[in-house]
Structures are given as C-alpha cells and as structure tokens.
Design brief:
The protein contains 15 helices and 22 strands. By secondary structure, the protein is an alpha+beta fold. Among the domains are: 241-353, Flavocytochrome C3, Chain A, domain 1 (Alpha-Beta Complex), CATH 3.90.700; 431-525, Methane Monooxygenase Hydroxylase, Chain G, domain 1 (Up-down Bundle). Helix 4 (76-96) crosses helix 12 (399-417) and helix 6 packs across helix 15 (491-512). It binds succinic acid.
Length: 526
C-alpha cells in the first residue's frame, strides 16, 4: 500500500482521493478550512461535456469552442482528451451521487458565453456545492482516507534538499488549531489547492484562494506557465459592502443582457430587443454572450469611460417564474439587497475569477521542472495546474470538467507507478524563531499587494503599470522574507508569502508577453 498526500478539498482533490483509495492505497487530505471551503463549492454554472460517446459532432463542436475561446494557445491534444473523457467522468460523478438537474429523462443543459450549443450540466445555480456535497459524503465514509481540516500546507519536503529531480517525500504543514508545525511523509503529493483570486480587491473566489500550492511547488523547483492569463468574470454583483457575489453566466445564457447607462435609457424608451442596446455588441457580434475575456474588457472599458462602478444586467424581459426556479441561490442573495430576478436592473462589475495559467504539468498531471521533466512524486490538478486545456482564456464551465479528468489521470498514474518508498521526513526547523507578535504589518502589506494587482495587473495593462507592479512586488517580497526568516509561521504569514510569489509570476509573465491574446490585454501592444 502506498500513501498519497492531497492538498485541497475541491473537486480535483476529493475525486483523486476516492480513485486512489478505491485502488487500495492510503490517502491523507489536508485542507485549510472546512472540507467544503473550496472554489468548487462556490461554482454556480456547471460542468460542460458530451455524455453520449457516439456524438462525434457534439464533441467536435465542444473542442472547437474551447480552441476558439483559448485564442490559439490551447494544446489541442489535451482539449481532445478532456472532451473525449468528459462522458466517463460525468458518469463517475453521477455514480458518486451528484444530482444534476433533469428535464424528463434527460439532463437539463444550459449554455454560457462562447458555447455554440447547450452542453452544460448543472444543479440549478449551485452546481459546485452539489458536487462538493456528494464527494465529501463519499470521502467521509471511506476507510482509507483521512481528512484533516484546518491544516495549511507550508512547504514540500524534497527527497534530496535542493534537487527537485530526486522527487518529493512529504510536506510540512501548519495545524491552524494548535499552531504547531508538522511533517507528513508520503510516496507522492497531489496539489489541488485551486487559484489565487485573493490577489485582487474584488474576487469571486473564497478566502482560501491564496495560491498556496503553486507557491509551494515553485519553491520546490516546479515551473509556472501562462500566468499572465488571469480570468475576470464579467458579472459579480455590486450591492452592499459585502464580498462580490457571482452572477452566473448561465443567466446570460438564458437571455440576460448587459447594458450601460446609455443603453439602459435607450432600452427604456425604445422598442427593440434589449440585446440591440448592449455595448457588448461593439466588441463582439455575440454581444452579452461573447467569451469572458471580451465581455469583461467591454465592461471595464465602459465603466472607465462613464466613471460608474458597474454596468447593468437586465432580466426584466425574461420569465420571472422560470428565473426564480433556475437560479434560486442568486434570487435569495438578491433578495438580501431588495433586488430580484426579472425586475429592476442588477448592478454588476468584473471580479477576479480563475487562474488560467498555473503549474506546468504533463498529460498525467505530473508537475514539470524547467527542463520539462517531471518532479517525481508531485502532481498538480485542478485550477492550480496549467494543462494546456484553456489556452489564453478558459471557456465557461470547462474548469470542473478539466479538474475531474485530470484528477482521474493523476490518480491512475500514481496507482500505476505504485511506488512504496516512504522515507523519514525532517521536523520543521524552528530554533531561534519567534512568535509573530504584530500582524498589522502583514495586513498593510496584503492591502498594498491587492491594490497593486488591482490597479496595475488587472484586465487592461500597460508596460509602465506592470513595471511599477514589479518594483512594488520586489519590495514586498523583501519585507515578507525578512519576517518569514525570523517568525514561527502563522496563516497570515504563509498566505502573504505565497501571494507575493504568485503575483510576481503573473507580473513577470505579463511583462514578457509581446502580443495581446485572450485574457492578456496590454494597451501598449494594441
Ligand atoms: C459561472 O457560473 O458563470 C461561472 C462558471 C465558470 O467559471 O466556468
């Protein structure tokens, strides 16, 4: 029996855990908060995929939509593999107990931006929560899976210190309950820690999304790829002072339309269809349902021109009852602000949503070094990984699909290697380190980091702004490093250290790009 350590409890981590455990191996999952505190749990829209293996035309269309959304940078072999394995993996989810919405005997399918057909399975507007519920339920009844909540991965332990080619033998982690550092030994580590939306002031991501896994792997010799491509979701609700709340793109799939103030006035006075007044038509003939990069940029531009903090999402031309029944989570959130679907316009604005780049991995999720060789015993799956599936821009609802396909592939690879080579792992060296007395400097540094990323590394960039961000990040990196070297780790310190490193990778990749593609948009390159 081999032992795998999985970091993260979203769809990728939990699915891989079940696969590995079914093959008779031991699994330890560590997760920073509660098991369900993951980006998966917050995913609304759904999972794209063709269930019928004989539907070659449907699969080809899914492949083409993915390639076209990825703006020429997808790896076609990976896209084909993910689309072709979709049916089997979705059936796996069904057999684990995920309850996707039905329409009679068939699944009810929705459409989102960039999709040429309805091919997204969903559980109303809480698809991720339903997947998370079923997977956590299965994990909690498995004998060979130990799930450790409130445990934060801090660093990977290399078999030979300083030589990634010799592989990984475990992790150091921080128990957030006891404040103690621990070492855990394993034959392999699967990183499934999701993204890093916490880098920006406005994000649809949960608080756990601080790039921990990516930073840990990079420190252990892994390579990051395509980091400049960070996806902003066009429609996060701007109401109250609370965190941005995602309004699923599926709502636009059902006919929701984006308007600016001018368009809204014209719509109120005119007699055309609402979409005819949408500013998004100036950016793409697909208007409000164009791909996310285009729609987010369109919103950003209109907000900058008008000085408004938001644009409008209108749904008053749609069937109220149907909207309330399809989107109950959104409706109940809106009600908190005296808003409702099918009535007054909703104020929305883009928010940081998804890390398209990530750890460079191969077709089995093995994390690669700079020379493209895998680091033995290290896998990256889900949002943390850059597989080549999404290219320069991810197609809506392809992320849960990619996560489950690669979780399966990584698990199968681990099982087939079936190494059994647990070694002793060293304790965390804490001599001479002090308890961090004041967290205030860390909080200020985090604010500075978020402001820098929001102002200088957002939807629209310039070389000057990126250079400015780079200088600021160098300063922050030195500050955090100073504190890190003399302090016993705390959650705040670990996360800030990781966020600064990930921000540096994003900014450097953006600075190195000589053309605008997909989500990377530099005004100096137009
Ligand atoms: C959404 O529901 O709009 C988000 C789905 C996704 O990010 O793919």
């Amino acid at each position: 029996m081999s032992r795998v350590i999985i970091i993260g409890s979203g769809i990728a981590g939990l699915f891989a855990a079940l696969r590995v455990e079914q093959a008779g191996h031991e699994v330890i999952i560590i997760t920073k908060q509660r098991p369900e505190d993951s980006s998966t749990n917050w995913a609304q829209g759904g999972i794209a995929g063709i269930l019928d293996k004989t539907d070659g035309e449907g699969m080809q269309a899914h492949i083409e939509d993915t390639l076209s959304c990825g703006d020429g940078l997808c790896d076609e072999e990976i896209v084909r593999c993910v689309v072709e394995e979709a049916g089997d993996r979705i059936r796996d989810l069904l057999s684990i107990g995920v309850d996707f919405q039905k329409d009679g005997d068939d699944f009810h399918l929705v459409k989102e931006g960039g999709h040429s057909a309805r091919r997204i399975l969903h559980a109303k507007d809480a698809t991720g929560a339903e997947i998370e519920r079923a997977l956590n339920n299965a994990v909690s009844t498995s004998d060979n899976i130990t799930l450790r909540p409130h445990t934060l991965g801090v660093d990977l332990i290399q078999r030979v210190h300083g030589d990634p080619s010799k592989g990984i033998k475990g992790i150091w982690c921080l128990s957030l309950d006891s404040g103690e550092m621990e070492s855990i030994a394993g034959d392999a580590v699967l990183i499934a820690t999701g993204g890093c939306g916490q880098l920006w002031e406005r994000t649809t991501n949960p608080p756990v999304a601080s790039g921990d896994g990516l930073a840990m792997a990079v420190r252990a010799g892994a390579t990051s790829k395509d980091m400049a491509f960070f996806q902003f979701h066009p429609t996060a609700l701007m109401a109250g002072n609370n965190r941005p709340f995602l309004i699923t793109e599926a709502l636009r799939g059902e006919g929701g339309v984006l308007l600016d103030d001018k368009g809204l006035n014209a719509y109120r006075l005119g007699d055309l269809q609402p979409e005819d007044y949408s500013f998004t038509l100036d950016f793409s003939p697909d208007g409000s349902l164009a791909t996310r990069d285009v729609v987010a940029r369109a919103c950003d531009q209109r907000m900058k021109i008008s000085g408004a903090d938001y644009v409008w999402l209108i749904t008053d031309h749609l069937d109220k009852e149907e909207l309330h029944s399809h989107f109950p989570t959104i409706e109940s959130k809106l009600n908190e602000y005296a808003l409702s679907l099918g009535k007054a316009p909703l104020p929305v604005a883009p928010a940081a949503h998804y890390m398209v780049g990530g750890l460079s991995v191969d077709i089995n999720g093995r994390v690669l070094m700079a020379n493209d060789s895998p680091i033995p015993g290290l896998y990256g799956i889900g949002e943390v990984a850059c597989t080549g599936m999404h290219g320069a821009n991810r197609l809506a609802s392809n992320s849960l699909l990619e996560a489950v396909v690669f979780a399966n592939r990584a698990a199968e690879h681990f099982i087939s290697e079936s190494v059994n080579n647990i070694e002793n792992v060293p304790s965390w060296r804490a001599e001479g380190m002090l308890e961090l007395e004041e967290h205030a400097p860390l909080i200020r540094d985090l604010e500075t980091l978020r402001k820098t990323m929001t102002d200088d590394v957002g939807i629209v960039r310039t070389f000057n702004r990126l250079e400015r961000a780079k200088r600021m990040l160098e300063l922050l990196s030195k500050e955090v490093d100073l504190i890190w070297r003399r302090s016993i780790p705390s959650r705040e310190l670990v996360e800030l250290r990781n966020l600064v490193l990930v921000a540096t990778h994003i900014t450097e990749d953006a600075l190195n790009r000589k053309e605008n593609r997909g989500l990377h948009w530099n005004k100096d390159l137009i």
